[in-house]
């Protein structure tokens, strides 16, 4: 790596970059700020890899209109150089908003912290995942794309209430995670990413996942986990349809523009609920690693293991 740039010349350079006002010049100074970030050490992959990451990030910042409103944030120190567990490259991470969980992006693959945490945990608990039989319910984002790309026996499904489970819509299989049409013990890994806060009768879904996993199989999943308080049920099914116990709260849904209603805020008793309904044992993995872009709230990755006998 070249000589580290001092703060004085850096600020002066930044001013002149803004005075010139071209995206490319801004991007250049933004990337220098990533290099001088105190937490960043040279990556073992070496300088050529870092050079590629910076060049790639500069290209995106200069040309991708989506990033234009955020350039000043990036300049003010919200960019970091690191290694992304989703695209397995040296990259620049950019914090687009203060809510890092949904906006701290890898400029190369677009992944966010919970997706990077999931990939890191997957490598730890099932390093041979590329050779396993994997099903993912409601895939979305860079981590789903990476798993689908690298695993030959990967299959995925989405949920539409008006489509019969097991049938197809637009080439995508429909599955209801509370009544899967998959065969008993037919999978090594079941993956869900931010799905279980939206599932009605989640206890049935945990039981179903245990049924389709082989003995020793794993359910690897992310969910916003409020580990400091008991589970809060926000809505449930009543005799007249859905019954709201709390004000409705919606999250983005890739297959429904109206979004997904939050049914449950899972608390400290989540592993107990899973164990009661599926006999699986759950471990929470809480990784914080700025160099892998794994920071922000709700980073936990859950791993439930089906007993071998
Ligand atoms: Zn990435």
Question: What would your notes on this structure say?
Answer:
With 309 residues, the chain is of the alpha/beta class. It has two domains: 7-110, no CATH class; 117-305, 3-Layer(aba) Sandwich (Rossmann fold), CATH 3.40.50.150. The protein is 31% helix and 27% strand. The protein contains nine helices and 18 strands. The protein has helices at 7-20, 23-35, 47-63, 71-75, 100-103, 113-125, 142-150, 202-212, 270-278, and strands at residues 79-84, 89-95, 104-106, 134-137, 154-158, 168-169, 172-174, 187-193, 213-222, 225-226, 232-233, 235-238, 241-244, 250-253, 256-261, 264-267, 281-285, 301-305. The strands form five sheets. An eight-stranded mixed sheet has the order 6-7-5-4-8-9-18-17, sandwiched between helices. Strands 1-2-3 form a three-stranded antiparallel sheet. Strand 4 (134-137), helix 7 (142-150) and strand 5 (154-158) form a beta-alpha-beta unit. Helix 2 (23-35) runs antiparallel to helix 3. It is globular. The termini are far apart. 38% of the residues are buried. The structure holds zinc ion (ZN). The site of zinc ion has 8 residues, from loops. Zinc ion (ZN) binds next to loops.
């Amino acid at each position: 790596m070249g000589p580290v740039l001092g703060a004085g010349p850096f600020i002066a350079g930044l001013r002149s970059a803004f005075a010139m006002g071209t995206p490319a010049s801004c991007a250049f100074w933004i990337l220098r700020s990533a290099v001088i970030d105190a937490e960043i050490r040279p990556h073992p992959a070496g300088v050529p890899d870092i050079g590629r990451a910076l060049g790639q990030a500069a290209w995106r910042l200069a040309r991708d209109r989506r990033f234009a409103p955020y350039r000043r944030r990036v300049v003010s120190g919200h960019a970091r150089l690191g290694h992304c567990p989703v695209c397995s490259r040296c990259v620049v991470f950019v914090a687009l908003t203060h809510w890092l969980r949904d906006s701290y992006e890898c400029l190369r693959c677009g992944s966010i912290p919970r997706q990077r945490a999931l990939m890191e945990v997957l490598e730890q608990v099932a390093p041979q995942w590329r050779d396993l039989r994997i099903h993912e319910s409601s895939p979305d984002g860079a981590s789903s794309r990476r798993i689908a790309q690298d695993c030959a026996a990967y299959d995925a499904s989405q949920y539409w209430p008006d489509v019969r489970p097991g049938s197809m819509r637009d080439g995508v299989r429909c599955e209801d995670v509370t009544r899967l049409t998959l065969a008993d013990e037919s999978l090594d890994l079941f993956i869900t990413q931010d799905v279980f806060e939206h599932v009605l009768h989640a206890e049935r879904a945990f039981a179903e996942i245990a049924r389709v996993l082989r003995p020793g199989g794993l359910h690897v999943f992310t969910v916003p986990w409020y580990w400091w308080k008991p589970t809060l049920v926000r809505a449930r099914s009543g005799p007249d349809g859905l019954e709201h116990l709390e004000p409705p709260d919606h999250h983005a849904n890739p297959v429904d523009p109206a979004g997904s209603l939050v049914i449950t805020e899972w608390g400290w008793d989540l592993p107990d609920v899973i164990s009661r309904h599926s006999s699986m044992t759950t471990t929470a993995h809480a990784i914080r690693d700025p160099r892998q872009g794994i920071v922000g709230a709700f980073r936990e990755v859950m791993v439930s293991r089906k007993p071998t006998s």
